[in-house]
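Message: Study each token:
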Amino acid sequence: MRTTHRWQTGTVPVTGGHLAWHRIGGNGPALVLSHGLTDNGLCWTRFAEALENEFDIVMLDARGHGASSRMPQCDTPNPGQDIAEAIDALGLVAPLVMGHSVGARAAAAFAAANPGRAARIVLEDPPLLPPASSSEMRQRRARFRQQVAELQSMSAQEIAAYGHEQSPDWDIDEFPAWVEGKQQVDPQALPEFATPWQQDFAAITAPTLLICGEPDRGGMVTPALASEAEALNANIRTVRIERAGHNIRRENFADYVTAVRAFLRDGGV
């Protein structure tokens, strides 16, 4: 374990590899953060700094991302199991667990498979897609490898310029870790969730907040999907954040933090 700035960093073993982590170690209950595809744990930095006096925040690098293990050649890791094993290795008891995008899908898979092991769950715009066929998955993986190859052929300055062009309204502090994540990601890191999302959502026993953006801005959870999620499980409530798309906390940080803080504190929004 080492200290970066005022944060601790280290690794924990998971099946077939390890996950890297960054921990603020603040007061209050443990809060585990699971990032989106091609990001890394430090992409939560701005959010973590806003809540560091209220929670003991742990930011994980997902497998194939950041400083965590690269993807294995022979099998498909379970992202929800990785979260569970990291929580165990860090000695966390009933933490709060949050995720964004595929990290939110992983958080939901973790909660479904491990009832009673999380106090609350927050899911930021997870991709609620049906399981892909083998041919569809091959096509998705090929497209992802091509996207990663294109990004990793660029310099850090070029990636940053591309990010600023695509997302001019993001706070400037979002970009350093975002750029680093693109440089670090394994081209094989596209996760596969074999279980339908409906099955996982129905099995969650913890109070859960599903945070949605606006579909016309790129939000993936449509009103119909949000209604389906709530109908599947009385533990799930949804909140839609205006003026935000898929990257909700990056596009409307103030409203996002207000909603998350209220839910994590007392279940309100």
